[in-house]
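Backbone-to-sequence.
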């Protein structure tokens, strides 16, 4: 940081915000900033380092500096000495990920320690069983020295024989002898599997300068000595006769803010102390405990460790990103490119502050690239509901892949593209003679097929004032089997949009159907023209006669006319009683397969340059069509 006298005092917002006396929420005072923001900012003269970080935007960018004291925060390059990292040696930018890493959920420890109400044993057990069912093979089960609840849960799993033979559990401990001993007590009785240990004891100690100085009060040498003492104690306890066979893990907490050479030194010390070998590798887990940089910096830090760690073939290089900058997923993905082999995170990103990296997003990001995630996400809603139950916290509706709205489009052009894309997908599957669920996926706006994660297509398209004809027609088709002609889609969308605009809310499929019924089907009985009885006869080839008892504006009459088809005969009949109308568009379709199904007919009629649509439904196509004509005629202006 620069001394205060080197800061200039010239930086002011060019247009100071006015201060509102009202404490009403902003929404009640149109065009104003929230009252809390306005009253909190008093706009003193601000300070900034002279000649350092640019604050004025180019001429094309009208933004002006805010009054917030950004100068208080140091960039990573000033906070951490990164001299050992040679940018020209980085290989991660050109690498690709084509296999899944070893995923390790830490919800039962890191996620749990961040909950308002930590999980009890039944909730923890539900989550543990979910992990097993999803196919996780390494699971952190707790911090047994933290509380009796944590200790008891580990004992519960052991005594209930709940840990499958191919699953390894991880227990977490700080570098304190009494707590390490308690941790070892908790794991008594977990057998190995064919000589492979099924328990990892995970030691952590913070290594970053601020933590060393402020929290632990130790310099580098002191901290190394503390770590060695703890690691040595663990190694001795592991050799005790009744101790289960274990492996070791070390996390230099706040690795991302630690001098790389010190992180390397301390990790290498554990590799040696625990005598790591390929048959019994050590896990070095490099956390971004609090995110402080862009993901490329984290990737450089990981690649540095990957290249320089001793006995690299005896080390599993693990990462543990948090999400303070919202880039936990990006950090984990770049870390994989940089040499990471194992990722710790939580389902849907629960965890301290803004959370741990989200394993659902990471795994399904890989899946969307054609890589097998090695974890089963085929029922994402059950996974989400279980996590919500255990954490007593909701998952955001827009959460990638698993949120309630993750596959839903409200906006018209997206709906149109999805609807066309689904139709194209179905056609392509038929062409390839493949089931739709196996055919290659290329539907606009949907990175994966929602059906792959157990979602139906029903919630893909939802209608509000942002929606267009395509989406509205899609819903009427999906829920009511209607196949509206394009021009009718346009006609109906106008009405639906007006309703959505007026009410400012979503229109449900049932409401759309009711609007459709009222507007296009019901006028057959509700208008100036009603038919009480009618019949058609084919009087000669290409000649049809239409006979009807009808009422015109309440006056009963009967009439007869001919035409080259039944509908032409009907319009001739109507013209004969003074109701002129020309049919300009017609279509019909069966609603279901089979002889007993309903047919729907759509008819557009025109009079004096004005058009209107009507629809009819009946088991007889002819009756449906006649009804559609009458409905359309009744909708013409009188
Ligand atoms: C990034 C992470 O997620 S780390 C995991 C964090 N998880 C948790 O903290 C949840 C469980 N923790 C706990 O239940 C408690 O903190 C306990 C049981 C571990 C310790 O409790 P207490 O003895 O009461 O200590 P307290 O929590 O007040 O303070 C932590 C102490 O541990 C020290 N400490 C912090 N990290 C470590 C570490 N990795 N190894 C050794 N000591 C450590 C601190 O310097 C402090 O020491 P001091 O009391 O001499 O100043
Ligand atoms: C792995 C441990 C120490 C952790 O949770 C963190 O650093 O965030
Ligand atoms: Mg953590």
């Amino acid at each position: 940081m620069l001394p205060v006298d080197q800061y200039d005092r010239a930086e002011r917002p060019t247009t100071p915000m006015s201060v509102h006396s009202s404490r009403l929420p902003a929404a009640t005072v149109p065009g104003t900033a929230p009252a809390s923001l306005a009253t909190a900012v008093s706009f003193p003269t601000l300070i900034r380092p002279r000649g350092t970080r640019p604050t004025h935007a180019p001429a094309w960018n009208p933004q002006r500096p805010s009054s917030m004291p950004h100068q208080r925060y140091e960039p990573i390059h000033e906070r951490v000495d990164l001299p050992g990292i040679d940018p020209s040696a980085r290989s991660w930018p050109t690498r690709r990920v084509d296999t899944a890493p070893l995923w390790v959920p830490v919800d039962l420890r890191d996620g749990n320690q961040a909950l308002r109400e930590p999980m009890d044993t039944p909730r923890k057990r539900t989550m543990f069983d979910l992990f097993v069912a999803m196919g996780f093979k390494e699971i952190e089960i707790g911090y047994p020295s933290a509380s009796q609840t944590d200790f008891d849960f580990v004992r519960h799993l052991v005594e209930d024989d709940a840990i499958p033979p191919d699953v390894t559990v991880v227990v977490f401990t700080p570098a304190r002898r009494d707590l390490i001993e308690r941790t070892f007590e908790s794991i008594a009785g977990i057998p190995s599997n064919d000589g492979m240990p099924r328990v990892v004891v995970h030691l952590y100690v913070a290594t970053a300068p601020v933590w060393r100085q402020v929290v632990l009060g130790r310099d580098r040498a002191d901290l190394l000595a503390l770590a060695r003492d703890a690691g040595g104690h663990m190694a001795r306890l592991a050799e005790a006769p009744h101790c289960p066979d274990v492996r070791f893990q070390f996390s230099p907490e706040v690795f991302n803010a630690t001098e790389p050479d010190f992180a390397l030194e301390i990790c290498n010390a554990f590799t040696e102390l625990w005598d790591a070998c390929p048959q019994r590798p050590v896990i070095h887990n490099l956390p971004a405990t609090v995110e402080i940089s862009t993901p490329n910096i984290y990737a450089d830090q990981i690649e540095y460790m990957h290249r320089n760690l001793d006995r690299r073939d005896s080390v599993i290089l693990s990462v543990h990103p948090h999400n303070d900058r919202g880039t936990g997923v990006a950090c984990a993905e770049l870390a994989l490119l940089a040499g990471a082999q194992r990722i710790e995170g939580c389902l849907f990103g629960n965890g301290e502050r803004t959370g741990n990296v989200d394993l659902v997003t990471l795994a399904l990001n890989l899946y969307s690239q054609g890589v097998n995630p090695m974890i089963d996400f085929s029922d994402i809603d059950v996974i989400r509901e279980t996590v919500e139950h255990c954490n007593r916290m909701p998952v955001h509706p827009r959460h990638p892949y698993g949120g309630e709205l993750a596959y839903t489009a409200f906006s018209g052009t997206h709906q149109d593209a999805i609807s066309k894309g689904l139709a194209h997908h179905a056609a392509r599957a038929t062409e390839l003679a493949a089931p739709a669920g196996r055919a290659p996926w290329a539907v606009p706006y949907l990175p994966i097929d929602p059906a792959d994660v157990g979602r139906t297509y029903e919630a893909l398209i939802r209608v509000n004032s942002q929606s267009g004809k395509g989406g509205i027609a899609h819903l009427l088709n999906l829920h009511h089997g209607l196949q509206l002609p394009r021009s009718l889609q346009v006609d109906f969308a106008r009405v639906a949009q007006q309703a959505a605009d007026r009410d400012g809310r979503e229109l449900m499929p049932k409401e759309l159907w009711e609007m459709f019924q009222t507007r296009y089907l019901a006028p057959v009985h509700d208008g100036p023209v009603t038919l009480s009885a009618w019949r058609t006869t084919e009087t000669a080839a290409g000649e049809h006669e239409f006979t009807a008892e009808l009422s015109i504006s309440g006056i009963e009459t009967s009439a007869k006319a001919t035409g080259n088809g039944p509908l032409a005969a009907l319009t001739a009949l109507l013209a004969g009683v003074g109701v002129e109308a020309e049919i300009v568009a017609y279509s019909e379709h069966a609603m279901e397969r089979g002889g007993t199904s309903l047919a729907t007919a759509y008819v557009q009629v025109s009079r004096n340059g004005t058009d209107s649509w009507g629809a009819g439904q009946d088991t007889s196509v002819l009756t449906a069509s006649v009804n559609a004509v009458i409905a359309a005629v009744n909708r013409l202006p009188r």
